[in-house]
Amino acid sequence: MIKFFRKIRRNLLTEGNTGKYLKYAIGEIVLVVIGILIALGINNWNERKKDRDKEIVYLNRLTTNLNSDIKLYNLIIKKDSALIESLKKLQSFNFNISDKENKSTEALNALITGYHFTPNKTTIDNIVSSGNIEIIRSNYLLEDIFLYYRTTEDIQKGIDEAISNYNRSIFGPWLIKFEAKSTNEKQKNQLHNSINLKLDLLNNQMEIYNSQKIFAASLIDKISNELEISR
């Protein structure tokens, strides 16, 4: 093709037809520019397609992570419900020798048992660390995703940490006393107050987890809608 154009230029120069040569040269430049623009357009289209394919992969992985989170929320809520039932039974104990024989110590373990949520952040961490945040086109979706994970961090620093502190510092030392001997009225009152506090913490945790579970489910729906647009 290049040889063909060169031949035309030589012929025009040989004929001394400067006007035709200039017109031809301008036409050739225009064709080159058009060719470059087409090549750039194809390259940009390929890059956009790569970005869309990568976005679809990330969104599908986020959906998998969120479904994993929902399963963990459900598991902890189920375990919290069992703990609450144990604590309610514990409220009726007198914590004496007779109760010891009725395994009150086993029930007391509910006071130092706790569960906390750890989100599956493999995909969002990968998106951030790789600098591919802009791959996700919807700013509204991206804001919701980051809000979800910020909320999980707040939960870990809030109710989850409060339960851990309770288990470790509020009731932990008491368990040894109650295992060793029967208790006086003051100790019983303190223990019942501890039980009520633990019940409040667990109910609060369950409420927060249910709310976050709904948030995760709504995110999955939004991601599903975004995937439909990307197809």
From TrEMBL:
Keywords: Membrane, Transmembrane, Transmembrane helix. It comes from the Bacteria. InterPro entries: DUF6090. The chain crosses the membrane at residues 21-42. The keyword Transmembrane applies. Pfam families: DUF6090. This is DUF6090 family protein. It comes from Hwangdonia lutea.
